[in-house]
Amino acid sequence: MVDGPVILVGPTSGLDYRRIRPEWGDILEELEFSLFSTSNRDELCHAEQFVALAQEFPEGSFVGFDGDEAVAMGTGILKRFDGRPPPHTLLDVMPFGQSGHQPDGNWYYGITIAVRPSHRRRGIGAELYGLRKEVVRTQNLRGIAAGGVIPGFEQHKQHLGIEEYIDGIRRGEIYDATLSFQLHNGFEIVCPLPDYVRNPKIDNYAVLIVWDNPDYRPAG
Question: Does domain 8-212 have CATH number 3.40.630.30?
Answer without folding.
Answer: yes
